From TrEMBL:
GO biological process, alphabetically ordered: glycoside catabolic process; glycosphingolipid catabolic process; oligosaccharide metabolic process
Protein name (Swiss-Prot/TrEMBL): Alpha-galactosidase
Lineage: Eukaryota, Metazoa, Chordata, Craniata, Vertebrata
Gene that encodes it: GLA
Organism: Gopherus evgoodei
EC number: 3.2.1.-
Signal peptide bounds: 1-25
Length: 435
């Protein structure tokens, strides 16, 4: 009986604390739309030997160069803002006051100076830590030092923390650690985006409570690390679609599901697969954190990553995450509700054999029948920008999609009242040469 009362009291206290803290998203005013920037991990990993790899080791020079290019090559102009350091920036030991410190050889000027440099370019700096005893690559973790580390990051002028979950101890310590770091960041008074991996580490043992996670984090990784490979992108999409009932609704301004970095501009994806990653990351309202080498990137990859129409879908102010509406052996179709009653629609050809395939669909199939009711204009955004013209709620459309590629459309509803109904193009079929 004593135990029952104790647990009841604890539960009540927990609820009171939740209510006091305020319900809903982490209200630090940040990440009102998905974070955009650059993160070193997928492309540069834990390269620490600057004698051997001077141009790709994890060093202040790498981040300064990326910051320079983000401004000079137009990345900042289209919204990429955060230059983010991942694992392997630290010394193997804390300093004499127990503070984290950067590797002195690779970051001789220190993080404060690097942050100043990045800020002088009008950009923001992200850094990496870990909830447990050690980071995934074996550098010092923040367990037992949440307040001190949060304050150190704030003192340095850091604007985003990616907080990993390796070596976390017990499930309770994992959850407590993620909560405590969120509170510690808040206490510093500095605006620091909090990027978590909490559900990824939690899921093998326990179903994540996304309402709680959103209360503490600005974005959160759910699934395995992304690789520069189609299988990895495909598996990330499949995982997201299979779990959409539990993860889509929670996403919104201030808190986003994070399917991991964009690997566009690297080595492993074909052009069509890069189109698919960009289109689907926009549909998923995913943070757009590129991991590539901005010093060596093809004009084509740059065009895709800087495509303003795709970015506008990703950054849509309504902040609703998209979802898959159908999948068969050949195609899958995803849609995302946008502000103003519009929809983004992605048609992906799943086949990894053969050539381009035609997908035929009725507009009545989109947005639960509302996307084009009574009429709509359709703009193709990827692979190329094309106007598909005006349609009505029963128009029938065909589109040709390359294997593992995607056609991304924006459907804008028009003609709410009969008087406004425009003249329509029924059964317009875009000619293959525009695709
Ligand atoms: C984990 C994370 C990755 C990356 C590495 C660094 O695997 O999921 O995104 O940060 O650690 O060691």
């Amino acid at each position: 009986m004593g135990t029952a009362v104790g647990s009841w009291q604890r539960a009540t206290l927990a609820w009171v604390l939740v209510l006091l803290a305020g319900a809903g998203a982490l209200e630090n005013g940040l990440a009102r739309t998905p974070t955009m920037g650059w993160l070193h991990w997928e492309r540069f990993l834990c390269s620490t030997d600057c004698a051997l790899e001077p141009l790709s080791c994890v060093s202040e020079q790498l981040f300064m160069q990326m910051a320079d290019l983000m401004v000079s090559d137009g990345w900042k102009d289209v919204g990429y803002e955060y230059v983010c350091i991942d694992d392997c920036w630290m010394s193997l030991t804390r300093d004499h006051q127990d503070r984290l410190q950067p590797d002195p050889e690779r970051f001789p000027s220190g993080i404060r100076k690097l942050a100043d440099y990045v800020h002088s370019k009008g950009l923001k700096l992200g850094i990496y830590g870990d909830v447990g005893n050690k980071t995934c690559a074996g550098f010092p973790g923040s367990y037992g030092y949440y307040d001190l580390d949060a304050q150190t990051f704030a003192d340095w002028g850091v604007d985003l923390l990616k907080f990993d979950g390796c070596n976390y101890g017990t499930q309770d310590q994992l959850a407590e650690g993620y909560r405590n770091m969120s509170l510690a960041l808040n206490k510093t008074g500095r605006s620091i985006v909090y990027s978590c991996e909490w559900p990824l580490y939690m899921r093998p043992m326990q179903k994540p409570n996304y309402t709680e996670i959103k209360h503490y984090c600005n974005h959160w990784r759910n699934f395995a690390d992304i690789y520069d490979a189609w299988n990895s992108v495909k598996n990330t999409l499949e995982w997201t679609a299979l779990h959409q009932d539990s993860i889509v609704d929670v996403a919104g301004p201030g808190g986003w599901n994070d399917p991991d970095m964009l690997v566009i501009g690297n080595f492993g994806l074909s052009w069509d697969q890069q189109l698919t990653q960009m289109a689907l990351w926009a549909i998923m309202a995913a943070p757009l954190l590129m991991s590539n080498d901005l010093r060596h990137i093809s004009p084509q990859a740059k065009w895709l990553l800087q495509n303003k129409d795709v970015i506008a879908i990703n950054q849509d102010p309504l902040g609703k995450q998209g979802y898959r509406i159908t999948k068969d052996n050949n195609f899958e179709v995803w849609e995302r509700p946008l502000s103003g009653g519009a929809y983004a629609v992605a048609v992906m050809n799943r086949q990894e054999i053969g050539g381009p395939q035609i997908f035929s669909f009725s507009t009545s199939f989109l947005g639960n029948g509302l996307a084009c009711n009574p009429a709509c204009s359709i703009q193709q955004i990827l692979p190329t920008s094309e106007d598909w013209g005006l349609h009505n709620w029963v128009s029938f459309l065909n589109t040709e999609v390359n294997p593992t590629g995607t056609v991304l459309l924006k459907v804008v509803v028009i003609g709410e009242s009969p008087a406004e109904k425009p003249v329509m193009n029924i059964n317009k079929k875009p000619s293959p040469d525009i695709l």
